[in-house]
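Continuing from yesterday's entry. The apo prediction looked reasonable, so today I'm repeating it with flavin mononucleotide included to see how the binding region is handled. Same sequence as before; SMILES copied from the compound registry.
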Amino acid sequence: MKKILILYKSKYGASKQYGELLKKELDSTIMNINDYHPGDEKSYDVIIFVSGIYAGNITIVKEVKKYFANFKDKKKIIFAVGLSKKDSALLEEIERQNLSGDLNNIDLFYGRGNYDESKLSFVDRTLCKIMKKVLKNKDRDSLEPTMKALLEIEGQKVNYVDNHYLIPLLELIKSIV
Ligand SMILES: Cc1cc2nc3c(=O)[nH]c(=O)nc-3n(C[C@H](O)[C@H](O)[C@H](O)COP(=O)(O)O)c2cc1C
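Holo prediction written out below.
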């Protein structure tokens, strides 16, 4: 039986929620990436990284790169959380933007997260305002799907977190453990 470690990084709770939903489905250990110390991964065979997408970037990729040597021989899976509707073009875009070089072979999955403008930190609210200002002046059809999502969500409070986004990842896990 392969041992599974779930490492999550979450600013507004959606990735934490997905991590906890995964934990319910899988015999596994869950840990906030902020509590991770090199060596914690030693006894695990599969690492599932869960985190949000901010301005196109899967935030936990920073730690995957930083500690890559520790995760090198493990089966690595990333579950990215964002606002855009899920489709194959979106996954390709996220993959292209985040998983190059050493990270090329990592399996990528995706689920929709949450957004509540009233709860954003000052920095994030400012960043969103700037991004929206820039995006509004561009031709809408030329926008990447993740950017379109940010424009469409303006001023709203949404929570799209749903178990069904985990199904493809759980199927992969079933085939390897
Ligand atoms: C400043 C900011 C930038 C964001 N950029 C994107 C983005 O580029 N693409 C996307 O799909 N979602 C984007 N989002 C939405 C987040 O990915 C979404 O809220 C997700 O649920 C965050 O996960 P977390 O709460 O676990 O951190 C952004 C949200 C904020 C606040």
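Comparison notes:
- The pocket of flavin mononucleotide is lined by residues 10-15, 52-56, 81-84, 113-115, 120, 124, 127-128, 146, 149-150 (CB under 6 Å).
- The mean pLDDT is 93.
Will overlay with the apo model tomorrow.
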